[in-house]
Amino acid sequence: MDLGSLSENKVAFFSTQPYDKTFFNKYNEFGFELDFFETQLNPQTATLIQECAIVCVFVNDIVNEAVIKQLAEKNVKIIALRCAGFNNVDLEAAKKYNLKVCRVPAYSPQAVAEHAMAMILTLNRKTHKAYNRVREQNFSLNGLLGFDLFGKTIGIIGTGNIGKAFAKIALGFGCKVIAYDIIADPEMEKDGIVFTDLKTIFKESDIISLHCPLNEQTKHLINKNAITLMKNQVMIINTSRGGLIETASVIEGLKEGKIGYLGIDVYEQEEKLFFRDLSADIIQDDAIQRLMSFPNVLVTAHQAFFTNEALTRIALVTFDNIKSLLVENDIKNKAASLV
Ligand code: NAD
Q1: Which residue in 112, 117, 213, 288 has the fewest CB atoms around it within 10 Å?
Q2: How far is CA 162 from CA 141, 158, 275, in A?
Q3: CA-to-CA distance for 176 and 152, rounded, in angstroms?
Q4: How much is the average pLDDT of 34-63?
Q5: What is the pLDDT of residues 236-248, one digit of tens each?
Q6: Which structural domain, as residue segments, surrounds residue 186?
Q7: CA 240 to CA 291: how far, in whole Å?
Q8: Are residues 165 and 272 in the same domain?
Q9: What is the model's pLDDT at position 180?
Q10: Does the annotation count 241 as an active-site position?
Q11: Same domain, residue pair 72 and 149
């Protein structure tokens, strides 16, 4: 790859948290120069990039055409996502401006799958409430009634790396697992997972867990029509991307009592909230405030990926992706066939 006179050794990180610095500094075995910015990448902050051919971004950085144009003008050549999803990157624009895009596709599917199950167990058995209760010397069980997961039907939408790992966990609990994906997986079928259509997933599942990417086909997959088809008291878990859920319809479903439980690790407007301490601020987003007011809603702030193993692999694979592009002009982990 021809990088002209620019430093091909320098990587500018955006949306950096303290743990990013720890892991990327620890695993910087190729000796890159690392420039960490706490701010999100967007059209205003792109101006911070100086003499740098590589930009490393995360889930809520804005990498639209306006930003990509600025990156190209600054001679940036590589956009390295340190995450799996790439819905925040305009891949057509990256192609147009000749920027390569790489990502970390399967750094720890188990981390996300295990968090999805943790959300199910918490919502069902109310361990978060029990924890607070006994600390106040309230040993009553009233209001903590759960249900057996054994024998329940779990519907999985998207059976890629994470969906597959989650299916194995659900089978381990003795659940019946049904799944929808644009491509059925014969290996999973051998394990007893039944692939079916989306309508059947909505109608027959006690618990629905979302593991497909956010794109034009999947945006607002969980909408008013879908919720109408679902069982009363259905549990919906979203550890994938916020835009899969039409928030207003889900709030309606919760108010009507149709949705019995909601666990979300991602939220459509999360870029204004997540990964920050806003405990002293007045939150302007009324939808998230309404969601958090329900006793049967559990919100975590995009932490499903957050394990030691995952952060280690994210750092190692990101550096390896960049090195492959610089040395071999090869993309190991393409964001899509476009780039
Ligand atoms: P993957 O690419 O391995 O799997 C995605 C699956 O979704 C594929 O099997 C694909 O065929 C399927 N799919 C695509 N379009 C579909 C559609 N219209 N309907 C149904 N299925 C469809 O991805 P993965 O590694 O399993 O990750 C899944 C998603 O999880 C990512 O897109 C990302 O948004 C999210 N994620 C979240 C976190 C977190 O911390 N919360 C961490 C990693 C990934």
Answers
A1: 213
A2: 34, 8, 22
A3: 6
A4: 95
A5: 999 999 999 999 9
A6: 109-299
A7: 18
A8: yes
A9: 98
A10: yes
A11: no
